[in-house]
Amino acid sequence: MIRLGATLVLSGALLLAGCSSDGADKPAPSPSPTASATPSPSPAAAEPKPPQDRACYQLDYTEAVAPTVDVARISCTGAHTSMTYAVGPLDVVVDGHLLAVDSARVRDQVATTCPERFDAFVGGTAEDRRLSMLRPVWFTPSVEESDAGASWYRCDAVALAADEKLAPLTGRLQDVLGRADGRDRYAMCGTAAPGTTGFQRVICSAKHSWRAVDTVPFAAGRYPGVAKVRAAGDGPCQDAGAAAADGALDYKWGYEWPTAEDWKGGQTYGLCWAPD
Question: Containing domain of residue 257, as a range?
Fold first, then answer.
């Protein structure tokens, strides 16, 4: 995970798991000789203001995955790629000790809070969110801002258009995955059959030929091993492929299973694919 920035580890969208199965500053000037040798005290730095909730921004991918960002907000009625859905205070005092803004405990706090609040913001089921290209990203003050008194976190929602590229956000984002049109707008598709040459995950509004249609969940815990996670998808994904074919006897289907690396990153499910 990127330090206090987002993980755009997209249910494997940036880390593809498995393969498919087919049917089968200047220096200060020196004081002048007439200047007093006693410097005047500098005015205290003003504490930076916290970000605003429901603000929108035009971020690129690199800015979205950075731990801090300094981009001016813009009107949400114009083109934007990021929307803030939660802002809150950082818990930086433990047993009377002040923690650094980039400490592990602070990182963990934000990395837990923002995904939880994301789920409630975009709505839908866990499967709806896994099958979409919407993802949470998060930011904290820079070390310099923290030293000046800033202590907040900011959670934003973004959508991936493709690998390391953000898509524009349109329409109302709150509960977007609780609506059929929202699920379709931000759905996950592929440029080719998963596991084949030319396959790339893309948002379904882009040119594509396959769509992620179902998930194969596993119980949390130790990674079951490649053999088990691979075999577990055959039946469910074949059924999902048949359902997507709408009754046709000749149909194709694909399955991506989670690797041990994906599992460690939190992806404890596979993805079923079908031609679209």
Answer: 209-276
Section 88-103 average pLDDT: 82
Q: Is the pLDDT of residue 29 over 50?
A: no
* pLDDT classification of 171: cutoffs 50, 70, 90: confident
Question: What does the alpha-carbon distance between residue 256 and residue 212 come to, in Å, rounded to a whole number?
Answer: 10
In sequence order, the 6+-apart residues with CB closer than 8 A to the CB of 218 are 224, 229, 232, 258, 268, 269, 270
pLDDT for 45 = 52
CA distances from 161 to 8, 144, 212, 231 (A): 12, 33, 15, 30
SS3 271: strand
C-alpha closest to that of 142 among 101, 92, 111 = 101
Same domain, 213 and 167: no
- Outline where 131-254 has alpha helix (H): 143-147, 180-185, 226-231, 234-244
Q: 216 and 164: one domain? A: no
The pLDDT score that the predictor gives to residue 46 is 63
Task: Kindly tell me the burial class for residue 240, based on how many C-beta atoms sit within 10 Å of its own C-beta (0-12, 13-18, 19 or more).
Answer: buried
3-class SS of residue 222: coil
What confidence tens digit (pLDDT) does each residue in 265-275 have? 889 999 999 99
On whether residue 198 sits in a domain, the answer given is no
